Amino acid sequence: QQPVQSPQAVILREGEDAVINCSSSKALYSVHWYRQKHGEAPVFLMILLKGGEQKGHEKISASFNEKKQQSSLYLTASQLSYSGTYFCGTEYSNYQLIWGAGTKLIIKP
Amino acid sequence: DADVTQTPRNRITKTGKRIMLECSQTKGHDRMYWYRQDPGLGLQLIYYSFDVKDINKGEISDGYSVSRQAQAKFSLSLESAIPNQTALYFCATSEAGTAYTFGSGTRLTVV
Questions:
Q1: What residues does B88 pair with on adjacent strands?
Q2: Is B80 exposed, middle or buried (0-12, 13-18, 19+ CB in 10 A)?
Q3: Is residue B70 packed enough to be buried (19+ CB in 10 Å), middle (13-18) or exposed (0-12)?
Q4: Pairing label, strands B31-37, B19-25
Q5: Shortest alpha-carbon distance between residue B48 and chain A (Å)
Q6: Which of B45, B48, B102 sits opposite A42 (nearest CB)?
Q7: Are the beta carbons of B57 and B65 closer than 8 angstroms?
Q8: Nearest CB to A100: which of B42, B96, B103?
């Protein structure tokens, strides 16, 4: 079942913060976050594993609420380079991801 | 060299033609995937493979077939291309519990 991402789109000024949510109706094994620029491949940002382990890089953080089966991606002091579409991928068993529909983030100077 | 290489990058083909998209990886990963992405939409899984002898259908496999020639190579074929298969196609690799690495994509147009 496809996870639900919210919001669908957000427009920010450079330096503002954003939160993108990813919710599932089923128990999750892990949540992945990726950013995709127009016409390019998705690029890995973060993995959050059941049990609290977090793997990632860059100046982006995320949380994983196992009770609510929800993950949130936090983008602080946004930069122009943060623009793109953000996808979450949810893993219900250790074999494949189900991708959300994406959240389009536009950063204006 | 890129970790995941897709060829061709762009292709225009006619309705009814057979076409093959190729993917090779240097990550040493066992798991490989083929995705389709339509404009403004998310990723839809076509086929996935967890090792050379393991091939599985994804959510939109009709009209497509795959071949896993080696651990590093995973090809996608459109047996008889139709216009609504016009899309951006991505190959990806991973290991269990790790990040997916995507190729640069193949932009396919069926006329």
A1: B37, B107
A2: exposed
A3: exposed
A4: unpaired
A5: 8
A6: B102
A7: no
A8: B42
Chain B residues lying within 8 Å of A39, measured CB to CB: 88, 105, 107
Contacts of B42 in chain A (CB under 8 A): 87, 99-102
What is the tens place of the pLDDT at every residue in A29-54?
889 999 999 989 999 998 988 766 66
pLDDT digits (tens, 9 = 90+) for B42-59: 899 999 999 999 999 998
